Amino acid sequence: METLLNITKQLQELAGDENKLRLLMEEQEKLKQEEQKAKQDTNLNSIEEESEEQKLQKDKNHKILKQQAQGFDPHFYSPQVHVGRSLNFHGDLFGINPQPVKPFILGICGGPSSGKSTVTNMIKSKLKNQPLTLNLMDFYLPLRGNLRRRNSTDSKDKELDEAQIQREINEIERHYDFDNPSAIDWDLLIKGLQLLVEGKPFNKPKYDEHLKVREEKTERVYPSNLIILEGHLIFTNQQLMDMLDLKVFIETDDDVRLSRRVLKMSKKGTLTNLQDLLYKYEKQIKPAYEKWIEPSKKYADIIIPNYGFRLESMDIDDILVPFPAVELIIKQVETQQHSNGQRKRQNIF
Which end of the chain has the least Cβ crowding within 10 Å, N or C? Predict the structure, then answer.
């Protein structure tokens, strides 16, 4: 009997141990399942985060491609762009390290009143992105002073009456040769172009053609992928010509240039004495053209003949030039801009 009781007791203890073992195994299995679930949740979160990053990158790339497809160029100056940084760079404005891209510089030369500005406007009207235009006239040496400097003509003119000022101006116009390369501030012009090529803004001077002074205020110009420089003497300076990518010369007969000059001055109200104009033309303008400007056309890549203007309207801007030549210039410019755009996209991606 006692033996039977002992056996029963041992069986009960074994049963209890079995229950404990079963509970322990169940608890371990539960912990294992919880660990696996936590690991799966961690992997899922990682995948979701990675997908979110990929989505942001995809949206960014899509935005860039959309801007390029619309012809948007963030490197052209815009008032909405932060003006404190250099803008003429390939790369984008989203944090990619910028690399400088040399702008395409188009030089348009020709004699006085040959139609340089008119051809420039014809080219600009055909371009999708408007270029930066510089005129050599703004870089004349200020014979009567630089108003940006103190104790200059600004104080001098206050002591002179209008008659004295006008006599000074008349003497300059009568005797000074504005068609001589020595009349240009080449150092300032080249320095300004170099800044623009480097992607930096430039304070362009403003020249008062009547008073023969450099104005106190300047015009701040910003880098552009295309710069058009027009002027009658731009092919007479070798350092400047080395910076030009395409050189165009407007060839116009002497009588057409003289007629355009008379009409232009009449419209401006600056033609006070036709006799003085003709005298200056014969003594200075024509000889300077033959000595400096006409010989420089040999450096031109393209020569465009200007056959005059329509006498019916007497509109000097309605000039008779072969449009295929103008279209050739536009094609050259657009090809260069497309090439720059390709380099930008390669840098972005």
Answer: N
